[in-house]
Amino acid sequence: MDIAVVGAGIAGVLIAREVARRDPGSSVVVVERDAVATGASRRSAGLHFPRGTTRRVRRMTSYSQDYYRALRKQMPRLPIYDRDMYLVAGLESEAHLCEVHLPEAGLAAVDPLALRVAGSPVVPPAGSGVWSAAGCQYADVPALTRALARELRPDTGFLEGVRVTAVVPGTSAVTLRTGTGDTLTAGQVVLAPGPWLRDPAWHGLVEPLGARAKKIVALHIEQAPEPDAPVVVFHDEDAFLLPLPHAGHWLFSYTCREWDVDPDELRAGVLPRDLAEAREVLGRYAPELAARCVSGRVFCDAYSSTKEPQIRPLDPEGRVVFAGAANGSGYRLAPAVAAETADLLGLLGGPANGRSTL
Ligand SMILES: Cc1cc2nc3c(=O)[nH]c(=O)nc-3n(C[C@H](O)[C@H](O)[C@H](O)COP(=O)(O)OP(=O)(O)OC[C@H]3O[C@@H](n4cnc5c(N)ncnc54)[C@H](O)[C@@H]3O)c2cc1C
User: Ligand 1 in contact with 26 (CB < 6 A)?
Assistant: First the structure.
């Protein structure tokens, strides 16, 4: 086998897709301990907005935005939905907003009443401004990941329910041992494990990266949004209110600060302190909705120390590559993560001038 990808989340599947596109003759297998899109990708809110806090993340954002747009042209039935987007922030944040948003987002200050006209329940508090930005979309990430995996099969192999138990880099190949008792040999291996950074199979290889798993909480509000209701991003709090008409409810995501969680131990669901923290933030903007936050989704994601995704070789020969730690933005940056991973694997055919080639 030429390349094995470990982990069938949105990152692993898009990496497999990029490898297959650049090198159609190669043999690629994706090894997944559970099923396609059952990790962080299953719980993702799937929001893409045209923002990046560093120059590299803005470049990755722009690339990924183009990629998803082109993908939808190729496969119009994919569950990716355009949304209008507004930002609410303190008036003093305007310079920072302009710096972190893509130029093509066309950030523009608007009358705060625009929110109500657009069908949003958000009332901006005194002293805050409202801006509009273009390029926002959200996806049903698990459905999208499964659709992309289906398209890759059977040329790309998928081993579901097969856990990788050891990764042994060698000078001419990498050996993977699996929970089924098999041994796989691949020329190169990509680890796309999402928040499973400390799996014994690769902990020693991945630990030097310094990536950490942080809990993410997104609450559900059981009220049907208008079909065209906009996304509202609360810039200063790093939170957002996302209408999910396809699911019949709203979602509110805020920044939870619980670090070094174990993805296999997050079984308690939404806790009282999660509800309290979320309601405190949402209550400033939409008190009626805040009172209705009673349930949601709780999981975690991998975060890097640099606030940028990590795509790195893990062994001296560069045969094992880590791809991930996208800091809670692993859906929206996955196409760029896949392109950078394929570059690192030495596959030609990458984006020219940073533009998506699909
Ligand atoms: C509640 C929530 C909301 C989010 N909202 C957003 C958002 O709005 N926008 C956005 O861009 N991002 C969002 N994210 C982040 C985004 O979902 C993740 O960054 C992304 O899904 C990570 O994809 P991945 O493929 O790297 O990891 P995962 O989807 O976690 O996939 C990793 C896979 O590796 C497998 N695996 C682990 N160990 C082994 C092993 N030993 N052998 C074989 N397979 C193994 C796992 O089973 C898993 O399927 C959110 C995340 C959460 C939890």
Answer: no
Instruction: Tell me what pLDDT residue 354 has.
Output: 54
Tokens of 43: 């719980």
Do 221 and 117 belong together in one domain?
Answer: yes
Residue 31 confidence (pLDDT): 98
Closest approach atom of ligand 1 to CA 240: 8
Instruction: Report the candidate in 223, 165, 155, 241 with the shortest Cα–Cα distance to residue 196.
Output: 165
131: CA distance to ligand 1 center in Å? 30
pLDDT (0 to 100) of residue 356: 56
Instruction: Judge if 158 and 201 occupy the same domain.
Output: yes
Burial annotation 247-260 (CB, 10 A radius, 16+ → b, else e)? eebbbbbbebebee
Of 48, 60, 159, 196, the residue with max ligand 1 atoms within 8 A of its CB, to mutate for a pocket test, comes to: 196
39 C-alpha to center of ligand 1: Å? 5
CATH of the domain at 328: 3.50.50.60
Ligand 1 pocket check for 252: Cβ under 6 Å: no
Segment 298-336, tens digit of pLDDT: 999 999 999 999 999 999 999 999 999 999 999 999 999
**Which helix or strand (DSSP H or E) is residue 120 part of?**
none
Residue-range definition of the domain harbouring residue 191: 3-44+141-210+309-354
Question: In angstroms, rounded to a whole number, what is the distance separating the alpha carbons of residues 138 and 44?
Answer: 10
Residue 127: CB atoms within 10 Å: 8
How far is it, in rounded angstroms, from Cα 195 to Cα 46?
16
Q: Are residues 7 and 121 in the same domain?
A: no
